[in-house]
Protein backbone atom coordinates (compact mmCIF):
# COMPACT_ATOMS: atom_id res chain seq x y z
CA UNK A 1 0.00 0.00 0.00
CA UNK A 2 1.03 3.60 -0.51
CA UNK A 3 0.79 6.38 2.03
CA UNK A 4 -1.38 9.27 0.97
CA UNK A 5 0.46 12.53 0.32
CA UNK A 6 -0.11 15.36 2.75
CA UNK A 7 -2.77 16.92 0.57
CA UNK A 8 -4.67 13.62 0.47
CA UNK A 9 -4.47 12.61 4.14
CA UNK A 10 -7.66 10.91 5.24
CA UNK A 11 -9.18 12.22 8.44
CA UNK A 12 -12.71 12.63 9.77
CA UNK A 13 -14.43 13.92 12.87
CA UNK A 14 -17.97 13.03 13.83
CA UNK A 15 -18.68 14.96 17.06
CA UNK A 16 -21.90 13.76 18.68
CA UNK A 17 -22.03 16.48 21.36
CA UNK A 18 -19.88 19.13 22.99
CA UNK A 19 -18.81 16.66 25.67
CA UNK A 20 -17.25 14.29 23.17
CA UNK A 21 -14.35 16.65 22.60
CA UNK A 22 -12.93 15.36 25.87
CA UNK A 23 -12.55 11.94 24.24
CA UNK A 24 -10.01 13.36 21.78
CA UNK A 25 -10.08 15.33 18.58
CA UNK A 26 -8.85 14.55 15.11
CA UNK A 27 -5.51 16.25 14.71
CA UNK A 28 -5.78 17.09 11.01
CA UNK A 29 -8.41 19.24 9.30
CA UNK A 30 -8.56 19.20 5.51
CA UNK A 31 -9.37 22.49 3.86
CA UNK A 32 -11.28 22.98 0.62
CA UNK A 33 -10.35 25.63 -1.91
CA UNK A 34 -13.95 26.83 -2.09
CA UNK A 35 -16.32 28.32 0.53
CA UNK A 36 -16.88 25.90 3.42
CA UNK A 37 -19.66 23.34 3.12
CA UNK A 38 -22.58 23.59 5.52
CA UNK A 39 -24.51 20.81 7.24
CA UNK A 40 -28.14 21.13 8.24
CA UNK A 41 -29.23 21.30 11.86
CA UNK A 42 -29.21 17.74 13.18
CA UNK A 43 -26.25 16.72 10.99
CA UNK A 44 -22.46 17.02 11.14
CA UNK A 45 -20.10 16.76 8.21
CA UNK A 46 -16.39 16.58 7.53
CA UNK A 47 -14.13 16.57 4.51
CA UNK A 48 -12.15 13.34 4.90
CA UNK A 49 -10.36 12.68 1.60
CA UNK A 50 -8.83 14.93 -1.03
CA UNK A 51 -6.46 14.51 -3.95
CA UNK A 52 -8.48 11.90 -5.84
CA UNK A 53 -8.96 11.82 -9.61
CA UNK A 54 -12.65 12.49 -10.28
CA UNK A 55 -14.14 10.01 -7.76
CA UNK A 56 -17.58 8.69 -8.66
CA UNK A 57 -19.10 5.43 -7.37
CA UNK A 58 -18.15 4.23 -3.86
CA UNK A 59 -18.93 1.15 -1.79
CA UNK A 60 -17.70 -0.49 1.42
CA UNK A 61 -16.25 -3.98 1.42
CA UNK A 62 -16.71 -6.52 4.22
CA UNK A 63 -13.53 -5.34 5.95
CA UNK A 64 -14.66 -1.72 6.13
CA UNK A 65 -12.46 -0.49 3.30
CA UNK A 66 -13.96 2.14 1.04
CA UNK A 67 -13.67 1.28 -2.65
CA UNK A 68 -13.75 4.25 -5.02
CA UNK A 69 -13.97 4.48 -8.80
CA UNK A 70 -11.65 7.30 -9.92
CA UNK A 71 -13.04 7.97 -13.35
CA UNK A 72 -10.38 10.31 -14.68
CA UNK A 73 -7.66 7.79 -13.81
CA UNK A 74 -9.80 4.77 -14.71
CA UNK A 75 -8.95 3.15 -11.38
CA UNK A 76 -10.64 1.40 -8.51
CA UNK A 77 -8.95 2.50 -5.30
CA UNK A 78 -9.13 0.85 -1.88
CA UNK A 79 -9.02 3.28 1.05
CA UNK A 80 -8.24 1.72 4.41
CA UNK A 81 -9.69 3.49 7.45
CA UNK A 82 -8.44 3.01 10.98
CA UNK A 83 -9.93 4.56 14.11
CA UNK A 84 -9.24 4.88 17.81
CA UNK A 85 -12.81 5.90 18.56
CA UNK A 86 -15.30 5.30 15.76
CA UNK A 87 -17.86 7.55 17.45
CA UNK A 88 -15.77 10.69 17.31
CA UNK A 89 -12.92 10.21 14.85
CA UNK A 90 -12.46 8.22 11.68
CA UNK A 91 -8.98 8.38 10.20
CA UNK A 92 -6.77 6.54 7.77
CA UNK A 93 -3.62 7.00 5.77
CA UNK A 94 -3.33 4.21 3.19
CA UNK A 95 -4.69 3.60 -0.28
CA UNK A 96 -4.09 0.93 -2.87
CA UNK A 97 -4.93 0.84 -6.56
CA UNK A 98 -6.82 -2.39 -7.18
CA UNK A 99 -7.13 -2.08 -10.93
CA UNK A 100 -6.31 0.51 -13.59
CA UNK A 101 -8.41 0.45 -16.78
CA UNK A 102 -9.05 3.69 -18.70
CA UNK A 103 -12.64 2.69 -19.48
CA UNK A 104 -13.79 2.47 -15.84
CA UNK A 105 -15.86 5.55 -15.09
CA UNK A 106 -18.59 5.15 -12.48
CA UNK A 107 -20.31 1.87 -11.59
CA UNK A 108 -19.15 -0.35 -8.72
CA UNK A 109 -20.75 -3.18 -6.78
CA UNK A 110 -19.68 -6.00 -4.47
CA UNK A 111 -21.18 -9.41 -3.76
CA UNK A 112 -22.83 -10.11 -0.37
CA UNK A 113 -19.91 -12.32 0.71
CA UNK A 114 -17.45 -9.58 -0.26
CA UNK A 115 -15.47 -11.87 -2.54
CA UNK A 116 -16.55 -10.59 -5.96
CA UNK A 117 -16.20 -7.04 -7.26
CA UNK A 118 -17.98 -5.51 -10.23
CA UNK A 119 -17.15 -2.29 -12.08
CA UNK A 120 -18.24 -0.77 -15.37
CA UNK A 121 -17.30 1.39 -18.30
CA UNK A 122 -19.58 2.72 -20.99
CA UNK A 123 -19.64 -0.54 -22.95
CA UNK A 124 -18.92 -3.38 -20.51
CA UNK A 125 -19.39 -4.67 -16.97
CA UNK A 126 -16.39 -6.48 -15.47
CA UNK A 127 -16.09 -8.95 -12.61
CA UNK A 128 -13.11 -9.96 -10.44
CA UNK A 129 -12.36 -12.21 -7.50
CA UNK A 130 -11.64 -9.82 -4.64
CA UNK A 131 -9.39 -10.34 -1.62
CA UNK A 132 -10.02 -7.41 0.74
CA UNK A 133 -7.16 -8.26 3.12
CA UNK A 134 -4.58 -8.57 0.36
CA UNK A 135 -6.10 -5.75 -1.69
CA UNK A 136 -6.07 -7.77 -4.91
CA UNK A 137 -8.36 -8.38 -7.86
CA UNK A 138 -7.86 -11.53 -9.94
CA UNK A 139 -9.61 -13.50 -12.69
CA UNK A 140 -11.06 -10.54 -14.58
CA UNK A 141 -14.06 -11.37 -16.74
CA UNK A 142 -16.51 -9.39 -18.88
CA UNK A 143 -20.10 -10.27 -17.91
CA UNK A 144 -22.20 -7.67 -19.80
CA UNK A 145 -21.32 -5.99 -23.09
CA UNK A 146 -22.65 -4.02 -26.08
CA UNK A 147 -24.07 -0.98 -24.28
CA UNK A 148 -21.83 1.83 -25.52
CA UNK A 149 -23.38 5.10 -26.60
CA UNK A 150 -22.40 8.80 -26.52
CA UNK A 151 -23.71 11.49 -24.17
CA UNK A 152 -24.61 9.43 -21.07
CA UNK A 153 -21.70 7.03 -20.64
CA UNK A 154 -22.01 5.84 -17.03
CA UNK A 155 -23.48 2.42 -16.29
CA UNK A 156 -24.77 2.17 -12.73
CA UNK A 157 -24.50 -1.29 -11.16
CA UNK A 158 -26.76 -2.59 -8.40
CA UNK A 159 -26.99 -6.06 -6.84
CA UNK A 160 -30.38 -6.77 -5.32
CA UNK A 161 -30.14 -7.26 -1.57
CA UNK A 162 -33.05 -9.71 -1.57
CA UNK A 163 -32.03 -11.49 -4.78
CA UNK A 164 -28.22 -11.08 -4.99
CA UNK A 165 -28.10 -13.17 -8.15
CA UNK A 166 -29.73 -10.21 -9.94
CA UNK A 167 -27.35 -7.54 -11.21
CA UNK A 168 -29.12 -4.39 -12.35
CA UNK A 169 -27.43 -2.23 -14.99
CA UNK A 170 -28.74 1.22 -15.92
CA UNK A 171 -28.04 2.69 -19.34
CA UNK A 172 -28.86 6.30 -20.26
CA UNK A 173 -29.80 7.96 -23.52
CA UNK A 174 -27.43 8.77 -26.37
CA UNK A 175 -28.64 12.38 -26.67
CA UNK A 176 -30.64 14.98 -24.80
CA UNK A 177 -33.77 13.90 -26.65
CA UNK A 178 -33.04 10.44 -28.02
CA UNK A 179 -35.69 8.96 -30.37
CA UNK A 180 -34.03 5.53 -30.09
CA UNK A 181 -35.25 5.41 -26.49
CA UNK A 182 -38.77 4.89 -27.82
CA UNK A 183 -37.67 1.52 -29.23
CA UNK A 184 -37.73 -1.08 -26.47
CA UNK A 185 -35.33 -3.26 -28.44
CA UNK A 186 -32.62 -0.57 -28.51
CA UNK A 187 -31.59 -1.16 -24.89
CA UNK A 188 -31.25 2.62 -24.48
CA UNK A 189 -32.69 4.51 -21.49
CA UNK A 190 -33.39 1.32 -19.60
CA UNK A 191 -32.66 -0.56 -16.40
CA UNK A 192 -32.12 -4.27 -17.01
CA UNK A 193 -31.68 -7.13 -14.55
CA UNK A 194 -29.23 -9.94 -15.36
CA UNK A 195 -29.43 -13.24 -13.50
CA UNK A 196 -25.80 -14.06 -12.76
CA UNK A 197 -26.64 -17.68 -12.00
CA UNK A 198 -27.45 -18.14 -15.70
CA UNK A 199 -24.25 -16.57 -17.03
CA UNK A 200 -22.67 -18.86 -19.59
CA UNK A 201 -19.34 -18.80 -21.34
CA UNK A 202 -20.12 -15.53 -23.17
CA UNK A 203 -21.15 -12.18 -21.66
CA UNK A 204 -24.74 -11.04 -21.56
CA UNK A 205 -25.64 -8.86 -24.55
CA UNK A 206 -27.28 -5.78 -23.05
CA UNK A 207 -29.93 -4.99 -25.71
CA UNK A 208 -31.12 -8.60 -26.04
CA UNK A 209 -30.47 -10.21 -22.63
CA UNK A 210 -31.77 -9.84 -19.13
CA UNK A 211 -35.18 -8.62 -18.02
CA UNK A 212 -36.30 -5.01 -18.40
CA UNK A 213 -37.00 -3.45 -15.00
CA UNK A 214 -38.04 -0.14 -16.53
CA UNK A 215 -37.65 1.79 -19.78
CA UNK A 216 -38.40 5.30 -20.95
CA UNK A 217 -35.88 6.40 -18.30
CA UNK A 218 -33.66 9.13 -19.74
CA UNK A 219 -30.71 8.57 -17.39
CA UNK A 220 -31.41 6.81 -14.09
CA UNK A 221 -28.02 6.94 -12.41
CA UNK A 222 -28.97 6.10 -8.81
CA UNK A 223 -30.66 2.80 -7.84
CA UNK A 224 -31.61 1.48 -4.38
CA UNK A 225 -33.97 -0.95 -2.64
CA UNK A 226 -35.90 0.04 0.46
CA UNK A 227 -34.36 -1.95 3.35
CA UNK A 228 -37.72 -3.01 4.85
CA UNK A 229 -40.00 -3.62 1.87
CA UNK A 230 -37.36 -4.21 -0.85
CA UNK A 231 -39.20 -1.73 -3.09
CA UNK A 232 -36.88 -0.60 -5.90
CA UNK A 233 -36.35 3.11 -6.63
CA UNK A 234 -34.20 5.08 -9.03
CA UNK A 235 -33.42 8.76 -9.53
CA UNK A 236 -33.55 10.07 -13.08
CA UNK A 237 -31.87 13.01 -14.81
CA UNK A 238 -34.41 14.58 -17.12
CA UNK A 239 -34.06 16.57 -20.33
CA UNK A 240 -32.61 20.02 -21.04
CA UNK A 241 -33.55 22.78 -23.51
CA UNK A 242 -37.26 21.93 -23.58
CA UNK A 243 -39.89 24.06 -25.34
CA UNK A 244 -43.68 23.90 -25.24
CA UNK A 245 -45.21 25.55 -28.24
CA UNK A 246 -43.13 28.67 -28.85
CA UNK A 247 -42.23 29.07 -25.17
CA UNK A 248 -38.83 28.18 -23.77
CA UNK A 249 -39.65 26.41 -20.49
CA UNK A 250 -36.30 24.78 -19.80
CA UNK A 251 -35.34 26.91 -16.78
CA UNK A 252 -38.03 25.35 -14.56
CA UNK A 253 -39.01 22.22 -16.49
CA UNK A 254 -38.90 19.30 -16.69
CA UNK A 255 -38.27 18.14 -13.13
CA UNK A 256 -35.91 15.38 -12.11
CA UNK A 257 -37.60 12.15 -11.03
CA UNK A 258 -37.79 9.58 -8.24
CA UNK A 259 -39.27 6.49 -9.88
CA UNK A 260 -40.67 3.34 -8.28
CA UNK A 261 -40.02 0.02 -10.02
CA UNK A 262 -41.83 -2.49 -7.81
CA UNK A 263 -40.30 -5.50 -6.10
CA UNK A 264 -37.64 -7.68 -7.68
CA UNK A 265 -37.51 -9.99 -9.52
CA UNK A 266 -39.37 -8.48 -12.48
CA UNK A 267 -41.69 -10.84 -14.25
CA UNK A 268 -40.18 -11.89 -17.60
CA UNK A 269 -43.68 -12.23 -19.06
CA UNK A 270 -45.12 -8.93 -17.85
CA UNK A 271 -45.23 -5.82 -19.98
CA UNK A 272 -42.18 -3.77 -18.96
CA UNK A 273 -43.23 -0.45 -17.40
CA UNK A 274 -42.56 2.58 -19.61
CA UNK A 275 -41.84 5.82 -17.75
CA UNK A 276 -42.47 8.11 -20.71
CA UNK A 277 -39.17 9.39 -22.10
CA UNK A 278 -38.57 10.61 -24.79
CA UNK A 279 -42.17 11.76 -25.34
CA UNK A 280 -43.37 12.55 -21.82
CA UNK A 281 -41.55 14.42 -19.07
CA UNK A 282 -42.36 15.31 -15.46
CA UNK A 283 -43.63 18.79 -14.66
CA UNK A 284 -41.89 20.83 -11.94
CA UNK A 285 -43.45 24.26 -12.45
CA UNK A 286 -47.06 24.44 -13.70
CA UNK A 287 -46.29 27.88 -15.19
CA UNK A 288 -46.24 26.62 -18.77
CA UNK A 289 -48.47 27.31 -21.78
CA UNK A 290 -51.87 25.58 -21.54
CA UNK A 291 -51.22 23.79 -18.23
CA UNK A 292 -54.82 22.64 -17.83
CA UNK A 293 -55.04 20.47 -14.71
CA UNK A 294 -51.34 19.61 -14.68
CA UNK A 295 -49.55 19.90 -11.34
CA UNK A 296 -46.03 19.17 -10.15
CA UNK A 297 -45.35 15.51 -10.91
CA UNK A 298 -47.79 15.31 -13.82
CA UNK A 299 -46.38 14.10 -17.11
CA UNK A 300 -46.52 16.53 -20.02
CA UNK A 301 -45.55 16.60 -23.65
CA UNK A 302 -43.54 19.27 -25.44
CA UNK A 303 -42.55 20.48 -28.88
CA UNK A 304 -38.80 20.06 -29.13
CA UNK A 305 -38.85 17.80 -31.07
CA UNK A 306 -42.48 17.19 -31.97
CA UNK A 307 -43.80 13.94 -30.47
CA UNK A 308 -46.09 11.63 -32.42
CA UNK A 309 -49.58 13.06 -32.86
CA UNK A 310 -51.13 10.49 -30.53
CA UNK A 311 -48.98 11.67 -27.60
CA UNK A 312 -50.81 14.28 -25.54
CA UNK A 313 -50.78 15.43 -21.93
CA UNK A 314 -53.71 13.12 -21.36
CA UNK A 315 -52.00 10.06 -22.83
CA UNK A 316 -48.78 10.91 -21.00
CA UNK A 317 -50.68 10.59 -17.72
CA UNK A 318 -52.73 7.55 -18.64
CA UNK A 319 -50.36 5.36 -20.62
CA UNK A 320 -47.01 5.85 -18.88
CA UNK A 321 -45.75 5.37 -15.33
CA UNK A 322 -45.48 8.71 -13.50
CA UNK A 323 -42.68 9.55 -11.06
CA UNK A 324 -43.32 8.93 -7.39
CA UNK A 325 -41.73 12.31 -6.61
CA UNK A 326 -40.43 15.12 -8.77
CA UNK A 327 -37.45 17.31 -7.87
CA UNK A 328 -36.48 20.76 -9.08
CA UNK A 329 -35.20 20.87 -12.63
CA UNK A 330 -31.46 20.66 -13.39
CA UNK A 331 -30.58 19.17 -9.98
CA UNK A 332 -29.02 16.09 -11.66
CA UNK A 333 -29.50 13.33 -9.05
CA UNK A 334 -26.66 10.81 -9.32
CA UNK A 335 -27.22 8.44 -6.41
CA UNK A 336 -29.74 7.33 -3.82
CA UNK A 337 -29.08 5.38 -0.62
CA UNK A 338 -31.40 4.44 2.27
CA UNK A 339 -30.49 4.50 5.94
CA UNK A 340 -30.88 1.24 7.85
CA UNK A 341 -34.29 2.17 9.27
CA UNK A 342 -35.81 2.92 5.89
CA UNK A 343 -36.96 6.32 7.21
CA UNK A 344 -34.73 8.34 4.87
CA UNK A 345 -33.38 8.11 1.39
CA UNK A 346 -30.34 10.28 0.76
CA UNK A 347 -29.94 11.70 -2.74
CA UNK A 348 -26.82 13.32 -4.21
CA UNK A 349 -27.63 16.23 -6.52
CA UNK A 350 -24.72 16.91 -8.85
CA UNK A 351 -26.07 20.22 -10.14
CA UNK A 352 -26.49 21.77 -13.54
CA UNK A 353 -23.87 22.31 -16.24
CA UNK A 354 -25.65 25.60 -16.89
CA UNK A 355 -24.17 28.41 -14.80
CA UNK A 356 -27.49 30.25 -15.12
CA UNK A 357 -29.30 27.43 -13.28
CA UNK A 358 -27.57 27.10 -9.88
CA UNK A 359 -29.69 24.18 -8.68
CA UNK A 360 -28.37 21.13 -6.94
CA UNK A 361 -24.79 20.77 -5.67
CA UNK A 362 -26.00 19.21 -2.43
CA UNK A 363 -27.07 16.08 -0.58
CA UNK A 364 -30.72 15.93 0.47
CA UNK A 365 -32.90 13.56 2.47
CA UNK A 366 -36.33 12.31 1.41
CA UNK A 367 -38.61 11.12 4.22
CA UNK A 368 -40.00 7.59 3.85
CA UNK A 369 -42.61 5.65 5.77
CA UNK A 370 -40.40 2.75 6.93
CA UNK A 371 -43.13 0.11 7.02
CA UNK A 372 -44.84 1.03 3.76
CA UNK A 373 -41.56 1.70 2.01
CA UNK A 374 -42.74 4.78 0.16
CA UNK A 375 -42.18 8.53 0.45
CA UNK A 376 -44.15 10.39 3.07
CA UNK A 377 -44.82 13.30 0.70
CA UNK A 378 -47.50 13.28 -1.98
CA UNK A 379 -46.42 12.94 -5.63
CA UNK A 380 -47.14 16.64 -6.23
CA UNK A 381 -44.91 17.81 -3.36
CA UNK A 382 -42.26 20.45 -4.07
CA UNK A 383 -40.59 20.15 -0.66
CA UNK A 384 -39.87 16.41 -0.38
CA UNK A 385 -36.09 16.82 -0.74
CA UNK A 386 -34.75 18.40 2.46
CA UNK A 387 -31.17 19.64 2.40
CA UNK A 388 -28.50 17.86 4.46
CA UNK A 389 -25.21 19.17 3.09
CA UNK A 390 -24.97 22.23 0.86
CA UNK A 391 -22.43 24.60 -0.62
CA UNK A 392 -22.18 27.87 1.30
CA UNK A 393 -22.16 29.85 -1.94
CA UNK A 394 -24.09 28.10 -4.69
CA UNK A 395 -23.56 31.10 -6.99
CA UNK A 396 -19.94 29.99 -7.33
CA UNK A 397 -21.01 26.61 -8.73
CA UNK A 398 -20.22 24.63 -10.74
CA UNK A 399 -16.58 25.74 -10.89
CA UNK A 400 -15.91 26.60 -7.27
CA UNK A 401 -17.88 24.18 -5.12
CA UNK A 402 -18.25 20.51 -4.31
CA UNK A 403 -20.39 18.44 -6.70
CA UNK A 404 -21.93 15.30 -5.16
CA UNK A 405 -21.70 12.09 -7.16
CA UNK A 406 -21.62 8.68 -5.41
CA UNK A 407 -23.01 7.83 -1.97
CA UNK A 408 -22.33 5.02 0.49
CA UNK A 409 -23.91 4.40 3.90
CA UNK A 410 -21.92 2.45 6.49
CA UNK A 411 -23.06 0.33 9.46
CA UNK A 412 -23.26 3.44 11.63
CA UNK A 413 -25.63 5.11 9.13
CA UNK A 414 -22.98 7.64 8.21
CA UNK A 415 -23.23 8.95 4.67
CA UNK A 416 -20.08 9.08 2.54
CA UNK A 417 -20.19 11.29 -0.54
CA UNK A 418 -17.77 11.73 -3.43
CA UNK A 419 -17.30 15.12 -5.07
CA UNK A 420 -16.02 14.34 -8.53
CA UNK A 421 -15.11 17.87 -9.61
CA UNK A 422 -12.92 18.51 -6.55
CA UNK A 423 -11.49 15.00 -6.03
CA UNK A 424 -12.87 14.76 -2.50
CA UNK A 425 -14.93 12.59 -0.16
CA UNK A 426 -17.11 13.91 2.66
CA UNK A 427 -18.72 12.09 5.57
CA UNK A 428 -22.05 13.18 7.05
CA UNK A 429 -23.67 11.90 10.24
CA UNK A 430 -26.93 12.57 12.02
CA UNK A 431 -26.56 13.92 15.55
CA UNK A 432 -30.07 13.08 16.77
CA UNK A 433 -32.00 9.86 17.21
CA UNK A 434 -35.43 9.08 15.83
CA UNK A 435 -38.16 9.35 18.42
CA UNK A 436 -39.99 6.07 18.64
CA UNK A 437 -38.15 4.78 15.59
CA UNK A 438 -40.53 6.72 13.39
CA UNK A 439 -39.86 7.85 9.89
CA UNK A 440 -40.38 11.15 8.22
CA UNK A 441 -38.38 14.17 9.22
CA UNK A 442 -39.15 13.69 12.90
CA UNK A 443 -36.70 12.81 15.58
CA UNK A 444 -35.16 16.26 15.71
CA UNK A 445 -33.63 16.56 12.26
CA UNK A 446 -34.45 20.24 12.37
CA UNK A 447 -34.17 20.52 8.60
CA UNK A 448 -37.15 22.74 8.06
CA UNK A 449 -38.88 22.29 4.70
CA UNK A 450 -37.77 23.06 1.20
CA UNK A 451 -34.36 23.72 -0.26
CA UNK A 452 -31.52 25.76 1.15
CA UNK A 453 -32.18 29.43 0.75
CA UNK A 454 -35.94 28.72 0.75
CA UNK A 455 -36.64 28.34 4.43
CA UNK A 456 -34.17 25.59 5.36
CA UNK A 457 -32.85 25.79 8.92
CA UNK A 458 -29.07 25.74 9.04
CA UNK A 459 -26.59 25.33 11.86
CA UNK A 460 -22.92 24.51 12.13
CA UNK A 461 -22.05 21.33 14.01
CA UNK A 462 -21.85 21.45 17.79
CA UNK A 463 -18.10 21.00 17.83
CA UNK A 464 -17.72 24.24 15.92
CA UNK A 465 -19.01 26.08 18.97
CA UNK A 466 -16.12 24.66 20.95
CA UNK A 467 -13.31 24.80 18.42
CA UNK A 468 -14.36 27.89 16.53
CA UNK A 469 -16.29 28.07 13.30
CA UNK A 470 -13.33 28.40 10.97
CA UNK A 471 -11.16 25.96 12.86
CA UNK A 472 -13.63 23.10 12.55
CA UNK A 473 -15.28 24.00 9.28
CA UNK A 474 -12.15 24.85 7.30
CA UNK A 475 -13.10 22.28 4.73
From TrEMBL:
Residues 39-430 form the Pyrroloquinoline quinone-dependent pyranose dehydrogenase beta-propeller domain. InterPro entries: 6-blade_b-propeller_TolB-like, Beta-prop_PDH, Quinoprot_gluc/sorb_DH_b-prop, SMP-30/CGR1_Lactonase. The keyword Signal applies. Keywords: Signal. It comes from the Eukaryota. Residues 1-22 form the signal peptide. It holds the Pfam family TrAA12. The keyword Signal applies. SUPFAM superfamilies: Soluble quinoprotein glucose dehydrogenase. This is Soluble quino protein glucose/sorbosone dehydrogenase. It comes from Immersiella caudata. The lineage of its organism: Eukaryota, Fungi, Dikarya, Ascomycota, Pezizomycotina.
